[in-house]
Amino acid sequence: MIFRSKEKKRSELEDYGFARVRDVAFDAVMDLWRKRQEAGVTQKDIAHRLDKDPAWVSRQLKGPGNWTLRTFGALVEALNGEAEITVYPIEIPAGNGQNYDAYASILPSRAAYIGSSELQQAASVSLIEPINSGSEQRVAV
Amino acid sequence: MSSAPILVRIADLVFRGELVPHVAQSRHANQRQLYLTKALLHKLEDPSSAIASLVGSGIVRAAFSRWTLGQRVYGDPKGGNFFKRLKAPPPEVWEIRITEPVVQARVFGRFAAPDVFVATEAHTRGMLGRKGSSSWLAACGQCVQDWQRLFPGDQPYSGTTIHHYVTGNCDDFPI
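YS: structure for the whole thing
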């Protein structure tokens, strides 16, 4: 037995979808935040740009919280970033050359468990630095 | 210490239905392993459980997917970490901290090997009370008992830094 999306109830689907998207948004912001930190940007700088209390910024960057799209957008702008959102069909494997499967030795036939799903899609959020850095992060939900 | 014997044991427990792997549905392959006990699975599937009704099973499963999909294990020297090793005794009891929504959850478990976590139980944060309370101690003790039942004679994996437990995509934070 393995968790499958089709076994989830409607409220669980909502919760799962919300939390996954929230996590992807958080990770994307944090990826850019780490780069900005290395360049000397501080939480105080972000707070100043947003006219917020530094404690508010600290809370937002501590872990995936109850962000609204407004919070997400504010942090993206304060970090001088740009968000791109793509929702992928889940049945199309990511073309990132990553074929390591942690369960391969334990569940050699696990493909049998992963059939059709109510969640036939995956989302990703990318934050692209506007200044020619060439870096981009994509994480699928 | 080789982790091979304990991984063989896990495979056997999965075959016998004693442990259930959390395999996240994704376009990406799962990068880390997570196994749930039947008791924990029951809590997630029972709509009347405190975890399902107050926290939301979907929220908990999303945290599990963060782990298995190899996404960032976030942490900060000031706290707010995804994973936390609880103060011994007993040794090597960890929690996955689910701090949103308002009713928080803690998932207890132990590492069988680097990037391989066995989750034994989940509790609402409110039920556990203050750190060091009898409820916390009981939850830690239950985790150890569950481990010993599943892996008689096997010790959990032990390391000295978070990077011994999580080999990639992990913040540097003290444990």
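YS: worth flagging: Residues 9-128 of chain A form one domain.
IM: good catch. Also Chain A touches chain B through 51 residues (CB under 8 Å).
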